[in-house]
From TrEMBL:
Superkingdom per UniProt: Bacteria
Gene3D superfamilies: Metalloproteases ('zincins'), catalytic domain
Domain Peptidase M48: start-end pairs: 209-409
Protein's membrane topology: Multi-pass membrane protein
Enzyme class: hydrolase
Designated name of the protein: STE24 endopeptidase
PANTHER family from the UniProt entry: CAAX PRENYL PROTEASE 1
Short name of any one Pfam family annotated for the protein: Peptidase_M48_N
Amino acid sequence: MNIYLAIVLGSMIAAWAVNTVVAVLNVKALDPRLPQEFAGVYDAQAYAASQRYTRDVARFDVVAETVGLAVGVAFILCGGFPFVDGLARSVGFGPVGTGVVFAAILLLINDVLNLPFSVHRTFVIEERYGFNRTTARTFVLDRLRGWLLTGVIGGPLLAALLWFFNAAGPLAWVWAWLATVTVMAVMHYLAPSLILPLFNTFTPLEPGPLRDAIEDYARRVGFALSGLYVMDGSRRSARSNAFFTGFGKRRRIALFDTLVAAHSPEEIVAVVAHEVGHYRKGHVLRHLALGVARMGAVFLVMSFFLTSPGLHAAFGMDGVSAYAGLVFFLLLFAPVSMVLSVGQNVISRRHEYEADRFAAQTTGRPEALVSALRCLSVDNLSNLTPHPAHVFLNHSHPPVLARIRALRALGAADATARDADLASAVEHRAG
């Protein structure tokens, strides 16, 4: 068997096996005993529902990944790529145009195959547990908008990358890297005002106690607010969240309307303080820098494999092309990408602890963030006892119990320090 084909098929099967084992371990780690940190917040019925939800999602994911593996292996072994390549070449475009058509056909096939699973997840599982508020019309429009964005942004970028790899010689990977980074930066800058509004409505947070509390916090920590908005997240889901998007003058704080409706101003300020902590601790810039460096490394390595006859032969291709080589390299690189993602999650979890600590220290109310985390966990039916292997492989955030215990330990340490300062002051006056 071709060595490249063996690596690709072996990594696909290994990834499926690892994910399946970890999913089983995660379900077995479910503990019917409610953690004491959630006493009085989670009632027995809701906690039981959260565990059923975890089991249902795990079963669904295993089935979806099993079907995906079977279809993927069959597509490769039965000549799917040469067939699609023949369709793309029949259009009669040049190398760049043919490559765009080739990628578009593959994306369309992937989207069609994933459609039943997306429908089931949204309208069966999420509906069953009271999360789904997406209508069929919104679901269809979201997919159409997604295709439109892919065509308007992804199409020209892919064409540029293929042109570089066909015409720019040994330094093509540098130009491809720079082009991709440029598009990412522009998209990040324009997302708050041009892209996100295609999917959701953003309304300025109305004057009142909540806005006053957030603005007062921002002034105290010297954080310039360029936009404070409420997003109609309830159009699609009952879940709650908040996030920062954009940078510079286009930076926005977006609060889900479900968050505003269900949480106290003190809790929401704590959530905002956590997000501010990510900026103040440099997490956002570090994440972007790592992403840019990783992308450059990927393009560099890709340049050595892009026109490899052996790599193309592994997938049954008669000739060599940059566009097919790009797709085949991504399949070959998948196990490395998985390892890098795990490492990125390790860094992300560390950043979450740092942002929690920042929020606790700058608000002076660790319990406000604890309360917000507890309520968000209940609202979202979060798994309170994930298996460590599941956390290691898949979680960008630490388990909520670990975050709560870290915050309370920080609060206890601060209280001890205050008591020591007070005792010292009393002793000084007595002296």
